[in-house]
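A brief tutorial aside. Many learners find it easier to grasp structure tokens once they have seen a single protein encoded end to end. The record that follows does exactly this for Membrane-spanning 4-domains subfamily A member 8. Read the sequence first, then the structure, and try to relate runs of similar tokens to stretches of the chain.
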Amino acid sequence: MKYQFGAHARTIAIFQLLLSLLCFVFGVLTKVYGSDVPYLMDTVAPGIWCSVFALAAAWKVLSTINKPTYTKLFWSNVTNWTASFFQFFVVAIQVYSLTHLLIAGKDFQTTFVTYAFISVGLVTSFILLLICVHNAKKFGRLCSNANSADNPEYFNDMTAISADTGATLVKISVLAIALSIPAVYIAYGEPYDYTYLARVGAGIWCSVMSLVAGALCYKSVPTKNNAQITATFAFGIIASVFATCELGVEVGAAVQCLMYQGEYPEMQTTFQVHMIVSACAMYQLALSIFIAVTYGKMNEAMLAKVI
């Protein structure tokens, strides 16, 4: 099947790639020049690590345009929605930081250079956010158009996508559990009395459901066993619910750490850990929904044959 990406798709992807690098540079500069400003939320440098997701999304789009397949369309959609989430977070932090400095900048003796880096970084991040959302919606439409009975490539790719999705979900779940265990242990220290969401450990117990759903998905692809298809469908739904809870709790924990990082600088590392787990939760949610929908269709077709 021939996919229609549009006349300027490659140009937009290259522009997204360059903006991601630019956001990374401005994140580093803001980190350096803003380190002497008390309670400046932007010193946690979200522009540095959030731009990595946008960079990966742009690279995936270019790879998809060069050699388009249904699998690459799907992953371009997922990576761009994830990048959009983190760019929105960056924009929100930079807006707060700039407003905070404009109100209380004289007390902090803020230099013009700090204002300039945050302002330019804000504009760059906002443009990058719009591009990520644009690409996510575009590749989502392409996936929807390709998901039809008239497209034989869709059915040929479904086995590869399901196996890849299951393996990826297992890896992401293991990463979320590995990061959450030390984060919860650290959160029971004295500086974390007010960051109660950091003690919940949502990345541990929620990721278990995603881990099971991913393992079932990977296992059921070669066998196509009816019982495994039904079980994968059920756990896909359960994992989606738990991933939603995980995302909400981890973002809340990150926000709480962010609020107190000025008073307790050691919370900057914990904040970044919780944001990485939030990224894992985003992927877990997207992949769990995909598994639930895919295996729901397979389960429906299986029941139709029985009847």
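Self-check: The chain has eight helices and no strands. If you spotted this yourself, you are ready for the next section.
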